[in-house]
Amino acid sequence: MPHFAEGIARFQREVFPAKAGLFARLATVHRPGTLFIGCSDARVVPELITQTDPGELFVIRTAGNLVPAHTPGADGVTAGVEYAVTVLGVRDVVVCGHSACGAMTALAEGHDLGSAPAVAAWLRHADASLARAAVGGTVDVAALVRENVAAQLANLATHPSVARALAAGEVRLHGWVFDIADGTVEELPATASTALAA
Length: 198
Ligand SMILES: [Zn+2]
Description:
The chain is α/β, with parallel strands linked by helices. The chain has ten helices and five strands, in the order ααβαβαβαααααββα.
């Protein structure tokens, strides 16, 4: 991984000095304003898309930007959501889907995931998204991406930490879709779950 060493060296030489003051403050303060939940896809880089500095986004990335609905018991996504909302007190939560999503494509096209059973099981968290997108017959990937963002926002609202913050008017939920080919970000209309925060 030679390019990593080169990148780290360039970061320390060219990037860090220009932001030394910011990093000095961040050394003792962690107060991001936004929880950004995006896909693990390497082409969807939250800080690049939003042009935000270190310290601004608390990021959770999962395959398909899926947020399992709340269930009793701990898991990494739930812990991250709860920490961001309850402990850090973020004011905004973004769920960001994207064009050409591998997870959504696999679901829309019914790919055989027999060799990746964990992926297949994880993608079940998009069952509702798929069910809605499938009304009328064939599933369009772009339509599924949008339905999935809405479904994950609804799932998010089932988490007690989010439900409490929504009821108190302390957090707003947003659904985005990033287009890789043209760099646009579309904000989806407020859904029932996001409207709770209006
Ligand atoms: Zn994706």
